[in-house]
Protein backbone atom coordinates (compact mmCIF):
# COMPACT_ATOMS: atom_id res chain seq x y z
CA UNK A 1 0.00 0.00 0.00
CA UNK A 2 1.34 3.43 -0.94
CA UNK A 3 2.11 5.98 1.75
CA UNK A 4 -0.66 8.28 0.52
CA UNK A 5 -3.15 5.42 0.70
CA UNK A 6 -2.08 4.65 4.27
CA UNK A 7 -2.65 8.28 5.20
CA UNK A 8 -6.14 8.14 3.77
CA UNK A 9 -6.92 4.99 5.72
CA UNK A 10 -5.62 6.53 8.94
CA UNK A 11 -7.28 9.88 8.41
CA UNK A 12 -9.89 10.84 10.95
CA UNK A 13 -10.44 14.38 9.76
CA UNK A 14 -8.85 16.90 7.46
CA UNK A 15 -9.06 20.65 7.76
CA UNK A 16 -8.51 23.36 5.19
CA UNK A 17 -8.18 26.81 6.60
CA UNK A 18 -6.70 30.09 5.40
CA UNK A 19 -4.45 28.36 2.91
CA UNK A 20 -3.15 25.83 5.44
CA UNK A 21 -2.46 22.37 4.10
CA UNK A 22 -4.81 19.60 5.17
CA UNK A 23 -3.51 17.39 7.96
CA UNK A 24 -4.37 14.12 9.61
CA UNK A 25 -4.65 13.60 13.33
CA UNK A 26 -2.82 10.66 14.84
CA UNK A 27 -0.90 12.05 17.80
CA UNK A 28 -1.31 15.20 19.91
CA UNK A 29 -0.58 18.32 17.88
CA UNK A 30 -0.45 21.78 19.40
CA UNK A 31 -3.16 24.01 17.99
CA UNK A 32 -0.70 26.75 17.08
CA UNK A 33 1.10 24.30 14.79
CA UNK A 34 -1.88 24.28 12.44
CA UNK A 35 -4.29 27.06 13.38
CA UNK A 36 -3.93 30.80 13.74
CA UNK A 37 -4.32 31.74 17.38
CA UNK A 38 -6.38 34.92 17.83
CA UNK A 39 -4.47 37.93 19.11
CA UNK A 40 -7.11 38.55 21.75
CA UNK A 41 -6.57 36.65 24.98
CA UNK A 42 -10.28 36.86 25.74
CA UNK A 43 -11.69 33.43 24.98
CA UNK A 44 -15.19 34.93 25.07
CA UNK A 45 -14.58 36.46 21.64
CA UNK A 46 -15.94 34.15 18.92
CA UNK A 47 -13.35 32.52 16.68
CA UNK A 48 -13.28 34.80 13.63
CA UNK A 49 -13.88 32.30 10.81
CA UNK A 50 -15.50 28.85 10.47
CA UNK A 51 -13.38 25.71 10.43
CA UNK A 52 -13.77 23.72 7.21
CA UNK A 53 -13.71 19.92 7.47
CA UNK A 54 -13.76 17.43 4.58
CA UNK A 55 -14.57 13.76 5.17
CA UNK A 56 -15.12 12.58 1.61
CA UNK A 57 -17.23 9.54 0.82
CA UNK A 58 -18.30 8.81 4.38
CA UNK A 59 -21.46 8.87 6.46
CA UNK A 60 -21.56 11.66 9.00
CA UNK A 61 -21.32 9.52 12.11
CA UNK A 62 -20.67 10.90 15.60
CA UNK A 63 -21.43 10.48 19.30
CA UNK A 64 -22.74 13.21 21.62
CA UNK A 65 -22.80 13.46 25.39
CA UNK A 66 -22.29 15.91 28.26
CA UNK A 67 -21.79 16.11 32.02
CA UNK A 68 -19.12 13.45 31.90
CA UNK A 69 -16.10 14.30 34.07
CA UNK A 70 -17.58 13.15 37.38
CA UNK A 71 -15.98 10.56 39.66
CA UNK A 72 -18.05 11.03 42.81
CA UNK A 73 -19.62 7.93 44.41
CA UNK A 74 -22.62 6.92 42.32
CA UNK A 75 -21.33 8.55 39.15
CA UNK A 76 -21.03 6.67 35.87
CA UNK A 77 -18.08 8.10 33.96
CA UNK A 78 -16.18 4.83 33.69
CA UNK A 79 -19.11 2.70 32.56
CA UNK A 80 -20.16 5.32 29.99
CA UNK A 81 -16.56 5.49 28.74
CA UNK A 82 -16.58 1.70 28.34
CA UNK A 83 -19.87 1.84 26.42
CA UNK A 84 -18.60 4.65 24.21
CA UNK A 85 -15.50 2.66 23.38
CA UNK A 86 -17.65 -0.33 22.44
CA UNK A 87 -19.77 1.82 20.11
CA UNK A 88 -16.94 3.56 18.24
CA UNK A 89 -15.50 2.08 15.07
CA UNK A 90 -13.91 3.15 11.80
CA UNK A 91 -17.12 5.03 10.89
CA UNK A 92 -17.06 7.24 14.00
CA UNK A 93 -15.72 10.62 12.91
CA UNK A 94 -15.78 12.68 16.11
CA UNK A 95 -17.32 13.42 19.50
CA UNK A 96 -19.68 16.33 20.14
CA UNK A 97 -19.45 17.34 23.78
CA UNK A 98 -21.94 19.64 25.49
CA UNK A 99 -19.96 20.66 28.56
CA UNK A 100 -19.43 20.08 32.27
CA UNK A 101 -16.14 18.44 31.46
CA UNK A 102 -14.60 18.32 34.95
CA UNK A 103 -16.43 18.03 38.26
CA UNK A 104 -15.32 18.21 41.87
CA UNK A 105 -15.43 14.97 43.88
CA UNK A 106 -16.13 16.44 47.32
CA UNK A 107 -18.61 19.30 47.06
CA UNK A 108 -18.04 20.21 50.71
CA UNK A 109 -14.63 21.59 49.74
CA UNK A 110 -14.20 25.06 48.22
CA UNK A 111 -14.89 24.89 44.47
CA UNK A 112 -11.29 25.97 43.79
CA UNK A 113 -9.57 23.63 46.27
CA UNK A 114 -6.04 22.96 45.02
CA UNK A 115 -6.40 19.17 44.83
CA UNK A 116 -10.15 18.71 44.33
CA UNK A 117 -11.99 21.36 42.34
CA UNK A 118 -14.52 21.99 39.62
CA UNK A 119 -13.07 22.47 36.14
CA UNK A 120 -9.29 22.61 35.85
CA UNK A 121 -6.82 25.08 37.34
CA UNK A 122 -4.30 25.06 34.48
CA UNK A 123 -3.20 23.23 31.33
CA UNK A 124 -1.01 21.07 33.59
CA UNK A 125 -3.76 20.11 36.02
CA UNK A 126 -3.55 16.35 36.83
CA UNK A 127 -7.27 16.10 36.00
CA UNK A 128 -6.42 16.13 32.29
CA UNK A 129 -5.09 12.62 32.85
CA UNK A 130 -7.34 11.29 35.60
CA UNK A 131 -10.60 12.52 34.03
CA UNK A 132 -9.87 12.39 30.30
CA UNK A 133 -6.68 10.89 28.90
CA UNK A 134 -6.65 7.85 31.18
CA UNK A 135 -10.40 7.17 30.96
CA UNK A 136 -11.33 7.19 27.26
CA UNK A 137 -9.43 4.61 25.21
CA UNK A 138 -9.39 2.96 21.81
CA UNK A 139 -10.77 5.09 18.99
CA UNK A 140 -11.79 7.69 21.57
CA UNK A 141 -8.10 8.57 21.88
CA UNK A 142 -7.75 9.19 18.15
CA UNK A 143 -10.75 11.27 17.13
CA UNK A 144 -11.50 14.92 17.81
CA UNK A 145 -13.68 15.99 20.72
CA UNK A 146 -15.53 19.22 19.85
CA UNK A 147 -16.03 21.01 23.16
CA UNK A 148 -18.15 23.63 24.85
CA UNK A 149 -18.03 24.68 28.50
CA UNK A 150 -20.57 23.89 31.19
CA UNK A 151 -21.14 25.74 34.44
CA UNK A 152 -18.77 23.48 36.40
CA UNK A 153 -16.01 24.40 33.94
CA UNK A 154 -16.61 28.09 34.64
CA UNK A 155 -16.24 27.91 38.41
CA UNK A 156 -12.44 27.85 38.24
CA UNK A 157 -10.28 28.53 35.16
CA UNK A 158 -12.37 28.04 32.02
CA UNK A 159 -9.64 29.79 30.01
CA UNK A 160 -7.29 26.90 30.81
CA UNK A 161 -9.49 24.51 28.82
CA UNK A 162 -9.15 26.68 25.72
CA UNK A 163 -5.43 27.12 26.36
CA UNK A 164 -5.05 23.33 26.56
CA UNK A 165 -6.23 23.13 22.95
CA UNK A 166 -3.76 25.79 21.82
CA UNK A 167 -0.79 24.61 23.87
CA UNK A 168 -1.16 20.85 24.41
CA UNK A 169 -3.54 18.86 22.23
CA UNK A 170 -5.92 19.90 19.45
CA UNK A 171 -7.91 16.71 19.93
CA UNK A 172 -9.60 18.60 22.80
CA UNK A 173 -10.96 20.96 20.16
CA UNK A 174 -11.78 24.21 21.93
CA UNK A 175 -10.40 27.29 20.11
CA UNK A 176 -12.85 29.69 21.78
CA UNK A 177 -16.08 29.66 23.77
CA UNK A 178 -17.85 30.36 20.46
CA UNK A 179 -16.85 28.81 17.14
CA UNK A 180 -18.42 27.26 14.05
CA UNK A 181 -17.56 24.40 11.71
CA UNK A 182 -18.57 23.60 8.14
CA UNK A 183 -18.47 19.83 7.75
CA UNK A 184 -18.45 18.45 4.20
CA UNK A 185 -19.18 14.78 3.55
CA UNK A 186 -20.74 12.48 0.95
CA UNK A 187 -19.53 11.14 -2.36
CA UNK A 188 -18.12 14.44 -3.60
CA UNK A 189 -18.14 16.29 -0.28
CA UNK A 190 -21.45 17.62 -1.58
CA UNK A 191 -23.41 17.39 1.69
CA UNK A 192 -22.86 20.18 4.20
CA UNK A 193 -23.51 20.14 7.94
CA UNK A 194 -22.82 23.29 9.96
CA UNK A 195 -22.07 23.02 13.68
CA UNK A 196 -22.29 26.16 15.82
CA UNK A 197 -20.71 25.63 19.25
CA UNK A 198 -21.80 28.21 21.82
CA UNK A 199 -21.37 29.02 25.49
CA UNK A 200 -24.79 29.29 27.12
CA UNK A 201 -23.59 30.23 30.61
CA UNK A 202 -23.98 34.01 30.10
CA UNK A 203 -27.53 33.35 28.88
CA UNK A 204 -28.41 31.10 31.82
CA UNK A 205 -26.90 32.80 34.88
CA UNK A 206 -27.65 36.34 36.03
CA UNK A 207 -24.40 38.09 36.87
CA UNK A 208 -25.90 40.36 39.53
CA UNK A 209 -27.38 37.45 41.50
CA UNK A 210 -23.99 36.09 42.59
CA UNK A 211 -21.66 37.32 45.32
CA UNK A 212 -18.17 38.52 44.54
CA UNK A 213 -16.54 35.23 45.63
CA UNK A 214 -18.49 33.15 43.14
CA UNK A 215 -16.35 31.67 40.35
CA UNK A 216 -19.08 32.08 37.74
CA UNK A 217 -19.41 35.79 38.53
CA UNK A 218 -15.65 36.30 38.50
CA UNK A 219 -15.27 34.71 35.07
CA UNK A 220 -18.28 36.47 33.55
CA UNK A 221 -16.66 39.77 34.55
CA UNK A 222 -13.15 38.78 33.45
CA UNK A 223 -14.38 37.67 30.02
CA UNK A 224 -16.66 40.71 29.71
CA UNK A 225 -19.75 38.55 29.33
CA UNK A 226 -21.58 40.07 32.27
CA UNK A 227 -23.56 42.88 30.65
CA UNK A 228 -26.44 43.04 28.19
CA UNK A 229 -24.43 44.64 25.38
CA UNK A 230 -21.86 41.83 25.31
CA UNK A 231 -24.50 39.12 25.55
CA UNK A 232 -26.44 40.76 22.72
CA UNK A 233 -23.22 40.76 20.68
CA UNK A 234 -22.89 37.00 21.17
CA UNK A 235 -26.51 36.51 20.20
CA UNK A 236 -25.89 38.53 17.04
CA UNK A 237 -22.83 36.38 16.28
CA UNK A 238 -24.99 33.26 16.61
CA UNK A 239 -27.59 34.73 14.27
CA UNK A 240 -24.87 35.72 11.80
CA UNK A 241 -23.63 32.11 11.77
CA UNK A 242 -27.16 30.86 11.16
CA UNK A 243 -27.60 33.29 8.27
CA UNK A 244 -24.29 32.17 6.76
CA UNK A 245 -25.35 28.52 7.12
CA UNK A 246 -28.50 28.74 5.03
CA UNK A 247 -26.81 26.79 2.23
CA UNK A 248 -26.36 23.80 4.57
CA UNK A 249 -28.27 20.53 4.49
CA UNK A 250 -27.98 20.34 8.27
CA UNK A 251 -27.49 22.90 11.04
CA UNK A 252 -26.61 21.80 14.57
CA UNK A 253 -26.22 24.15 17.53
CA UNK A 254 -24.34 22.80 20.56
CA UNK A 255 -24.53 24.38 24.01
CA UNK A 256 -24.48 23.21 27.59
CA UNK A 257 -27.87 24.22 28.94
CA UNK A 258 -31.05 22.34 27.98
CA UNK A 259 -33.92 23.33 25.72
CA UNK A 260 -35.79 20.02 25.83
CA UNK A 261 -39.50 20.24 26.65
CA UNK A 262 -40.32 22.28 29.74
CA UNK A 263 -36.69 23.41 30.10
CA UNK A 264 -37.50 26.07 27.50
CA UNK A 265 -39.83 27.82 29.91
CA UNK A 266 -39.06 26.97 33.53
CA UNK A 267 -36.63 28.94 35.69
CA UNK A 268 -33.80 29.76 35.43
CA UNK A 269 -33.90 28.99 31.71
CA UNK A 270 -36.25 31.89 31.14
CA UNK A 271 -33.44 34.39 31.90
CA UNK A 272 -32.09 34.64 28.33
CA UNK A 273 -32.23 31.06 27.07
CA UNK A 274 -35.74 31.80 25.82
CA UNK A 275 -34.17 33.82 23.00
CA UNK A 276 -32.79 30.71 21.31
CA UNK A 277 -35.85 28.67 20.18
CA UNK A 278 -37.40 31.48 18.07
CA UNK A 279 -34.01 32.05 16.45
CA UNK A 280 -33.59 28.35 15.72
CA UNK A 281 -37.08 28.15 14.23
CA UNK A 282 -36.51 31.25 12.09
CA UNK A 283 -33.37 29.82 10.49
CA UNK A 284 -34.58 26.22 10.30
CA UNK A 285 -32.01 24.65 12.63
CA UNK A 286 -32.00 20.86 12.42
CA UNK A 287 -31.19 20.16 16.07
CA UNK A 288 -29.91 21.65 19.29
CA UNK A 289 -27.67 19.42 21.44
CA UNK A 290 -27.48 20.26 25.16
CA UNK A 291 -26.79 18.75 28.56
CA UNK A 292 -26.87 20.05 32.16
CA UNK A 293 -29.80 17.83 33.18
CA UNK A 294 -28.16 14.50 34.00
CA UNK A 295 -30.23 12.16 31.88
CA UNK A 296 -30.99 11.39 28.23
CA UNK A 297 -34.11 12.79 26.57
CA UNK A 298 -35.38 14.34 23.35
CA UNK A 299 -38.08 16.66 22.08
CA UNK A 300 -38.56 15.64 18.48
CA UNK A 301 -39.63 18.00 15.71
CA UNK A 302 -43.39 18.18 15.28
CA UNK A 303 -46.16 20.26 13.74
CA UNK A 304 -45.36 23.26 15.97
CA UNK A 305 -41.55 23.08 15.91
CA UNK A 306 -39.19 22.09 13.11
CA UNK A 307 -36.26 21.78 15.55
CA UNK A 308 -35.28 18.60 17.39
CA UNK A 309 -33.88 19.21 20.89
CA UNK A 310 -31.51 16.53 22.14
CA UNK A 311 -30.63 16.15 25.82
CA UNK A 312 -27.33 14.32 26.30
CA UNK A 313 -26.49 14.95 29.96
CA UNK A 314 -26.08 11.27 30.87
CA UNK A 315 -22.32 11.18 30.33
CA UNK A 316 -21.45 10.23 33.90
CA UNK A 317 -22.53 12.86 36.44
CA UNK A 318 -24.78 11.52 39.18
CA UNK A 319 -28.36 11.02 38.01
CA UNK A 320 -31.02 13.68 37.63
CA UNK A 321 -34.68 13.99 36.78
CA UNK A 322 -35.78 15.15 33.32
CA UNK A 323 -36.83 18.50 31.90
CA UNK A 324 -40.38 17.22 31.53
CA UNK A 325 -42.73 17.38 28.54
CA UNK A 326 -40.22 15.66 26.26
CA UNK A 327 -41.11 13.27 23.44
CA UNK A 328 -39.06 10.63 25.25
CA UNK A 329 -36.95 10.69 28.39
CA UNK A 330 -35.02 8.37 30.68
CA UNK A 331 -34.52 10.02 34.09
CA UNK A 332 -31.53 9.11 36.26
CA UNK A 333 -29.95 7.35 33.29
CA UNK A 334 -26.34 7.21 32.14
CA UNK A 335 -25.91 7.13 28.39
CA UNK A 336 -25.23 9.03 25.19
CA UNK A 337 -26.48 9.81 21.69
CA UNK A 338 -25.34 8.23 18.43
CA UNK A 339 -26.10 10.11 15.21
CA UNK A 340 -25.63 8.79 11.69
CA UNK A 341 -26.41 10.57 8.41
CA UNK A 342 -25.76 8.09 5.58
CA UNK A 343 -27.02 10.44 2.88
CA UNK A 344 -28.36 13.95 2.59
CA UNK A 345 -32.02 13.55 3.49
CA UNK A 346 -32.29 11.60 6.74
CA UNK A 347 -30.55 11.54 10.12
CA UNK A 348 -30.88 8.41 12.25
CA UNK A 349 -30.36 8.68 15.99
CA UNK A 350 -30.08 6.16 18.80
CA UNK A 351 -29.91 6.77 22.53
CA UNK A 352 -27.68 4.21 24.23
CA UNK A 353 -28.12 3.43 27.91
CA UNK A 354 -25.05 2.57 30.00
CA UNK A 355 -26.52 2.08 33.47
CA UNK A 356 -25.21 -1.42 34.11
CA UNK A 357 -21.51 -1.90 34.81
CA UNK A 358 -21.61 -5.65 34.18
CA UNK A 359 -23.91 -5.71 31.13
CA UNK A 360 -23.47 -4.44 27.57
CA UNK A 361 -24.94 -1.04 26.76
CA UNK A 362 -28.07 -1.10 24.62
CA UNK A 363 -30.31 1.15 22.52
CA UNK A 364 -33.29 2.51 24.45
CA UNK A 365 -34.77 4.98 21.96
CA UNK A 366 -34.43 5.65 18.23
CA UNK A 367 -35.75 8.16 15.75
CA UNK A 368 -35.13 10.16 12.60
CA UNK A 369 -34.72 13.81 11.65
CA UNK A 370 -35.27 15.11 8.12
CA UNK A 371 -32.85 17.50 6.46
CA UNK A 372 -33.52 21.22 6.26
CA UNK A 373 -33.76 21.09 2.48
CA UNK A 374 -36.42 18.41 2.67
CA UNK A 375 -38.37 20.68 5.03
CA UNK A 376 -38.05 23.55 2.57
CA UNK A 377 -39.49 21.59 -0.37
Automatic annotation (TrEMBL):
Keyword Zinc-finger listed: no
Superkingdom of origin: Eukaryota
UniProt KW keywords: Hydrolase, Signal
Domain Calcineurin-like phosphoesterase: 62-294
SUPFAM superfamilies assigned to the protein according to its UniProt record, in alphabetical order: Metallo-dependent phosphatases
Pfam family name, one: Metallophos
InterPro entries: Calcineurin-like_PHP (IPR004843), Metallo-depent_PP-like (IPR029052), Metallophosphoesterase_PAP (IPR051558)
GO molecular function, one term: hydrolase activity
Protein name stated in the entry: Metallo-dependent phosphatase-like protein
Native source organism of the sequence: Gigaspora rosea
Amino acid sequence: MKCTEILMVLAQVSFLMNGYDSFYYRTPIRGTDKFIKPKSRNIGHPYPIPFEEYYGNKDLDFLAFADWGDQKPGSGQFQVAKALQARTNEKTLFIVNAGDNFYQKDEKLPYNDETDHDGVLSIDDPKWHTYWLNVYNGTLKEIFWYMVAGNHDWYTNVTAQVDYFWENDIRFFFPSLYYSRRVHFGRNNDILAVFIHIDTNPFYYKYNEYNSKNGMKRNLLALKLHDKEQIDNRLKWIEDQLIAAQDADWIFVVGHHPLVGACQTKQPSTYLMYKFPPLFEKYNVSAYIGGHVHDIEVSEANSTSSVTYFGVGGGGATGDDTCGDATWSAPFTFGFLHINIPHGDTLYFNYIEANETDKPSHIVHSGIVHSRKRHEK
